[in-house]
Hints:
The complex is a heterotrimer of chains A (282), B (311) and C (356). Helices cover 77% and strands 0% of the residues of chain A.
Amino acid sequence: MIAGRSRAKRRLAAAGLYAAVGLYVAFALFPLFWTFKISVTPQSLLYGEGITVWPSAATLDNYARVLRATDFPRYFLNSVVVSVTTAAIVTLVASAAGYSLSRFRFRGKAAVAFLLLLTQTFPLVMVIPPIYRLMGEIGLTNSLTGLIVIYTAFNVAFATFLMQSYFDGIPKDLEEAAMIDGCTRVEALRRVIVPLTLPGMGATLGFVFTAAWSELLFALMLINSENQKTFAVGLLTFIGKFAVDWGQMMAASVLALVPACLFFAFLQRYLVTGLTAGAVKG
Amino acid sequence: MTSLSSQMAEAASRSGSGGRRRALLAALEPWAYLSPALVLIATVLLVPLLFGIGYSFRKFSAFRSEFVGLGQYEAMLHDPILGQALVNTLWWTAGSLFFQFFLGLGLALLLDRDFVGRRLVQAIVFLPWAVPTFLSGLTWAWLFNPIIGPLPHWLSALGLKAEPTNILADPATAMWGPIIANVWFGIPFFAITLLAALKSIPSELYEAAAIDGANPWQRFTRVTLPFLAPTIAITVMLRTIWIATFADLIYVMTEGGPAGSTNTVATYIYVSAFKSLDKGYASAVAVLLLALLILYAVVLIRMRRLFARDA
Amino acid sequence: MASVTLRNVQKRYGALNVLSAVDLAIADGEFIVLVGPSGCGKSTLLRMIAGLEDISAGEIRIGERLVNDVAPKDRDIAMVFQSYALYPHMDVAANMGFSLALRKAARQTIAERVAGAAGRLGLEALLARLPRQLSGGQRQRVAMGRAIVRDPQVFLFDEPLSNLDAKLRVHMRAEIKALHQSLKTTAIYVTHDQIEAMTMADRIVVMHDGVVQQVGAPLDLYDRPANAFVAGFIGSPAMNFLPARVWRAGDEAAVVLADGGTLAIDAALPVRDGDLVTLGVRPEHPRIAASGALAGEVAVVEPLGLSTQLYATLAGQQVCSLAMGRVAAAPGEPIRLTAEPGDLHLFQRETGQRIG
Ligand SMILES: Nc1ncnc2c1ncn2[C@@H]1O[C@H](COP(=O)(O)OP(=O)(O)OP(=O)(O)O)[C@@H](O)[C@H]1O
Ligand SMILES: [Mg+2]
């Protein structure tokens, strides 16, 4: 660092730094902590100790009831199916598209890149009315397939940019060396390029999974039969019906957080590089 | 003789057409890899977009629709809810963006320094970004609930509120709820993008500035900010569009209420497309929103050019 | 092993002509070096031979076989890249054995061939390492090893030494040459370093702006450059060029420099009185002599120990003269130089073509 400041001043700066960091950490964690706290507070203590920092007794009853007596396990499963399928398809499709943008020079490439960028920025609310009607007409309302198709299309542009940046990071020489060594283009892809882009594909998979797991509005609009609900839809309708069962709702929320947090832990490393590569994604 | 020359001609034409076929295949190859992505985007995004624009000239009822020309657009002029939603959208976007940006910048600057436990801190402060939006909304809605949430009690203890009531239930304060949730959720995005940009500033620049006698504030304004400016410009622009059209949080927390006080154009489109039968009106409002956003982007880009020319 | 024949080979990128009509016959077992300034099309030509780049026109044969439409993998060639292009996820042994594994060779065979190549290049101890655990020089060797294991018809090298430090480069140069002498495989080697070209090549191909300027043995190119470009490109320090006019009377001929200084030339040369030419003199040829016909002034003296490099201003131009041993001269002093008619090169002023 740059020298020349007095010791006392430096101490003060360090204290300020840690205080600021502490505030950010508290702000980030507090809501999650609170959800967790309510989820382990026994029903009987909720009204008396609802706003204390930690209840006098803790219980896992709420979790037990969510898992046994509600449809949440089913919602959870639906969400897993939708998110995993979406993430897998998007990663495949985006890998192919990203490879094309990274490795070929062809007429119309700039136009394609621009189109992809455009879909990144135009408001999705624009397509809510038509999609609601079109999906109804082709019978994809109330089906997880319909959701998977929509989520895949929404995420493919972002994922393509992400994959393109990973392919760009692999020198073209490697592929050419493989082709001279005896590979066809497809073999070179499978034996050299894919192994080297696996971390990138993992990151893309994670980003898309998180996005699909979080989506609410289209799911809410398209799904209303009980056994097709995703977690987001299930939780929201649950609130509508049993608005006062706080403990169970929060227990369910904590469960919904688990996969997202797991993926997040895995994605951590890619956040800074990944997001700058893909530029713009909520 | 004739057979020889015809053989040669045949060979020439064979290699010629073979070459052409190969060239054609080579030209098609990149498009083959792109096609699944392009087909998806075209059918699920672009076609509906065109349909949506078409819808905005029609009126829908239970079983039929009819062409009404600019009727839906005319109806917007006399819609007081839409007027309020436009104003709300402005507040919602400006408020969220202001706090997200400055708090995100602050966080990025902190994380750009070295301190004990930096990696762990980074993981924790970025966590809200991974929390599904509907959960962010619900969590904050609960925190504002006086029965199970501490915030109303803290606010009244601080003297900011007379009674520990839910700010989401009061039209005067309700918008702050979604804004705070949005800030919580959006800080990491700005922090991540700005941090990546900060990391790309060569440290020699700071050292040179220090040798030239710049104090920390001058180093920030003369080195850091100019370096970040392009990133800031593009992220703020894209983020504005994103927030203005982001309906999830508000829908989850207030559904636009109470008394329409948190209704933005995006939630309005969603609710009217979803709940009322007239997709035509919702589409017309969506076209209006798109037009406003394009106008915003164009103005911003123009301003940047002007600015760059002056500088 | 095989010959390589290029006939009228051309390359265009859209309207941009990168290579125009290259004709080249490379004999079986020959070591050919393609040399030329950056951007002249050397890599493009090499990559067309490898099949990595389409051929806009013409034909390429390896041995008797026309390979225009043959995929790189079926051309039976090996290539060493400037970046080495080692597969980062495979260890050294896997890198070297990759091509054999693709050809479904028996595990035993692969191990033997890899061990053989590793022995030749001194890589035995590194076989289990990943490329990122190697130094630059070691990576270069592995890239060579990967090419050798193949036992291909033709070796292609694209500036394989340019990422090494000067000392290692000299060492590897000798090693590649020795390798070629024992393997006798046809090799095509691209470089922009004319010293590499001179020391390694059986024949050198000098290229400029996508056009082959001259093909020949290193010393032929040095002694009889076909044009002013080749003359200036081959040789270090570079040849001196001076504008001059021919003077001719009877069976005597000379060139007159801008300042009136005169040098006799071979009278048998096809020049006429008054022709405008460019005079070329290699630095080792001007001699310092009190009676020299060319008068100038010493500008810089660079004693190198073994030899001395002296720059003089002569007829308004800097001229470099290389003399063995020490030279007693100081900047600012007047100096007189001369040169033998047999050591002078004459080029047409307009076209740069060699006159003699
Ligand atoms: N894909 C391309 N499109 C258009 N022009 C190209 C393309 N690839 C190469 N060129 C041009 O072709 C010419 C020859 O390039 P090439 O790579 O063969 O040069 P080189 O002789 O190997 O140079 P260097 O010594 O710098 O490697 C250059 O002028 C280059 O700009
Ligand atoms: Mg090159």
